Amino acid sequence: MMKLLRRWALPAAVLLLCSLAWGAVSLIDASRLQSGIGNELGLAQHLQDDEEFKIPLTELLEHGRRVFSANWTTEEGGGRPRTKGNGRGLSDPTLSLTGARGFNRISGPDANSCMGCHNQPFGVAGGSGDFVTNVFVLGQRFDAVTFDRSDTTPTRGALDEKGEPVTLSSVGNSRHTPGLFGSGYVEMLAREMSTDLQRIRDSMKRGETRLLISKGVNFGRLTRKEDGLWDVREVQGLPRLSLITATPLDPPTLVIRPWHQAGNSVSLRDFTNTSFNHHHGIQTIERFGANTDPDGDGYSNELTRADVTAATLFQAVMAVPGQVIPNKPEIEQAIARGQALFNNQFACASCHTPSLPLSRQNWTFVEPGPFNPPGNMKAGDAKAVRVALNDDSLPQPRLKPAHPQDDVLWVPAYTDLKLHDISDPNDEMVQESLDMNWPVWAPKFLGGNRRFLTRRLWGVANSGPYFHHGLFTTMRQAVLGHAGEAVASRQAFQSASKADQDALIEFLKSLQVLPPGTNELIVDEQYRAKKR
């Protein structure tokens, strides 16, 4: 733990001196605050570190729900007066993010709670969001976006790092808020597949080229040259951060990053630490240091390690989406026909893999995980918390192996966890202005992005709007929006009969997040177990 914090100690200390220079007298330890008469706290009480190992699982998950749902206030560290959403100090420290500048829809802070954006369907904390909850990814590198062309300070309000004026479409990437249903299974799949790819890499000899295949998903070819250097030019579907290599002693990590639609985030924990600061100005101890005040709001220790663990586990154990098949023969037939078309003639399943196998040893979600980057707790930094994802006491429905003795559980997420270019270069609505997987000073950062993780389709029907940008209101629009690597599938759909097109849409309509308390994965229109 201390090794992790030391990585962040210097910048936190420098920012703390800045905050003291602005008149901060003493720090309030937010982790010790408790709700009382006259005070206004979004989180009535924090978990102290090591309590996550002592309290019952139900209490730990309930605390995680409260952290996720809390409406953060300035009385507990909400807001970040002296820092940006990317954790850096303001470009102009003379203009703090307070008062009218305290909230900014584009650069943040932009929400009072996680649940404020993650609440669909059924008002469930952790779900997806309406278009109004779209986040402007990378807008947080600005102090407070104003688009005021008279402002000449880069990344203060109107100019980018090169001093060029930004517009609403170029300041950041507008992204639809994703749902987190079934996310524990997805992350464990990603961890297992990352381990598979690393095992292949570690077995390679100099001068050898190997296929990178895990669970039937092909990630291309990795070459180790005679001089020991790694050649990643033929690796497919992994983000830049997983392919960086400089010397024979620095092999590419090959880590699958299942979070952020461009594959930028390794884990729910990483995503959580980043989001609390970006969206709410709540700074976690493990990311920003203990007993420090880098954002200059007068509060330290705004979220403990135990708080973050609880919030992460709450997301990881969310219920799994299912399928709704109404008891109407014509609809049942259309769904069955649509599923066959999805898997075969339209070849949607070539990327939206209907299900991936998860080995028994990974049916347990272990937190913290093994691949977290600096600024996040990592396996070995602290005692682990383990939760059996198939535990019947967790939110229903849940996945089960086909037979109790099976060592493989099939996860029907409809994704291959790869990045694909499915866009048309001539369609400006699809390409993003910025590539979040490159540093801001790199030419490719401003070159835009057209590669996105294959969308998980379980729960798609009631988790709209659609596509990474949320600009499509129907799934039919999303299908027709496929190009690039998916152009053949779109053309097959376009050339099909209206009946077959409608059948595919009917199949997609059946893939739904089910109401809380639903126990079965496949149900009828009354959410009762579907009779076969």
Account of the protein in words:
It is a single chain. 23% of the residues lie in helices and 11% in strands. A hairpin with a 2-residue loop joins strand 4 and strand 5. Helix 2 packs across helix 6. The protein is globular.
Short description:
This protein has helices at residues 2-21, 57-69, 183-202, 268-280, 285-288, 305-316, 329-343, 475-480, 487-495, 498-510; strands at residues 28-29, 135-137, 173-175, 208-214, 217-224, 230-231, 299-300, 322-324, 356-359, 364-367, 385-388, 408-411, 419-421, 451-453, 511-512, 522-523. With 532 residues, it is of the alpha+beta class.
Number of strands: 16
Contiguous runs where pLDDT drops below 50 for at least 5 residues: 1-24
Write the element-wise H/E pattern from the N-terminal end onward.
HEHEEHEEEHHEHEHEEEEEEHHHEE
Shape call: globular
Oligomerization category of the chains in this entry? single chain
β-sheet strand percentage = 5-15%
Keywords:
532 residues; alpha+beta; three-stranded antiparallel β-sheet; three-stranded mixed β-sheet; 10 helices; globular; disordered N terminus
Summarize the helices and strands and which ones pair or pack.
Blueprint: H1 2-21, E1 28-29, H2 57-69, E2 135-137, E3 173-175, H3 183-202, E4 208-214, E5 217-224, E6 230-231, H4 268-280, H5 285-288, E7 299-300, H6 305-316, E8 322-324, H7 329-343, E9 356-359, E10 364-367, E11 385-388, E12 408-411, E13 419-421, E14 451-453, H8 475-480, H9 487-495, H10 498-510, E15 511-512, E16 522-523
Parallel strand pairs: 1-7, 8-16
Antiparallel strand pairs: 2-3, 4-5, 5-6, 8-15, 9-12, 10-11, 13-14
Helix pairs in contact: 2-6, 4-6, 7-10
